[in-house]
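Re: that backbone. Tokens:
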């Protein structure tokens, strides 16, 4: 198992789900973790459980707040971009404001975070950025995921572009494409269909392994990509999807 001792990681949307599991897993490997979320109380609760985790409120839609937080943080070696939002619907259901919100939170927020963090990483001559995309992106289509899939595909494009631009500067940038993962917002989406059990069965059926992933199973890939075990790997989109994309 690798050690992340001596590295500082900033994680967005660390209040619950994949972001929270990632913050915990990075800290368990020795990293100092700045766990951020728009829900400041959630990251404070997380921080209370680990001396290596600090909680900071951060809305990733707020460029000024991102600049202020990154500016006042110690040098970062790891950035995990996890904030995201699912618009449920086809192109017929998708209004301009839905499209804009999906791209603002899923794609532009990562642009803002990476733009704020990269100068410091370039100064150090090293850094690893891990972007949480989705298998529903350029990798695979899924019903009622029009704006979501388009915005998640943009993450893979940004990831490859940054990897190409900074590959000679010690910066790596990779994306993870989760399948269906059992998180608080997934449960809300299942409930919002009006028939939780039916939706749960349908979402489970599309996972060839017959089950959802856990946030911890995604966090394992976050840790691999964040640390030096993956030193020869950049610009890739890794499916951790229970076989959905086979
Ligand atoms: P989640 O959706 O349950 O939690 C999201 C977190 O984001 C919450 O703590 C929320 O407070 C925070 N958040 C919302 N708006 C924010 C903002 N503007 N600024 C900062 N934080 C904000 O978590 P999840 O389901 O594990 O999803 C995390 C990421 O993984 C998302 O990008 C999602 O698209 C992606 N993903 C999830 C699944 C899945 O099935 N759960 C599958 C593929 C990809």
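Recovered sequence:
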């Amino acid at each position: 198992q690798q050690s992340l001792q001596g590295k500082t990681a900033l994680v967005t949307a660390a209040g619950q789900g994949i972001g929270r599991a990632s913050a915990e897993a990075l800290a368990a490997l020795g990293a100092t973790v700045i766990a951020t979320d728009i829900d400041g109380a959630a990251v404070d609760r997380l921080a209370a459980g680990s001396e290596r985790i600090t909680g900071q409120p951060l809305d990733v839609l707020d460029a000024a707040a991102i600049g202020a937080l990154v500016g006042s943080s110690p040098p970062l070696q790891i950035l995990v971009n996890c904030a995201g939002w699912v618009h449920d619907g086809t192109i017929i259901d998708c209004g301009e404001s839905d499209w804009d919100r999906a791209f603002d939170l899923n794609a532009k927020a990562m642009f803002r975070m990476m733009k704020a963090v990269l100068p410091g990483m370039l100064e150090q001559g090293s850094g690893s950025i891990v972007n949480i995309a989705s298998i529903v992106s350029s990798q695979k289509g899924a019903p009622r995921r029009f704006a979501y899939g388009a915005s998640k595909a943009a993450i893979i494009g940004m990831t490859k572009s940054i990897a190409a631009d900074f590959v000679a500067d010690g910066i790596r940038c990779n994306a993870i494409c989760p399948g269906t993962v059992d998180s608080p917002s997934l449960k809300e989406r299942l409930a919002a269909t009006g028939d939780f059990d039916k939706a749960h069965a349908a979402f489970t059926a599309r996972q060839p392994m017959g089950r959802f992933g856990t946030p911890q199973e995604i966090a394992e890939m976050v840790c691999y990509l964040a640390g030096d075990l993956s030193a020869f790997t950049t610009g890739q989109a890794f499916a951790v999807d229970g076989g959905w994309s086979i």
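The first strand starts at residue 8 and ends at 11. Residues 12-13, 15-19, 37-39, 42, 58-61, 82-84, 105, 132, 134, 178, 180-181, 183-186, 215 surround nicotinamide-adenine-dinucleotide (CB under 6 Å).
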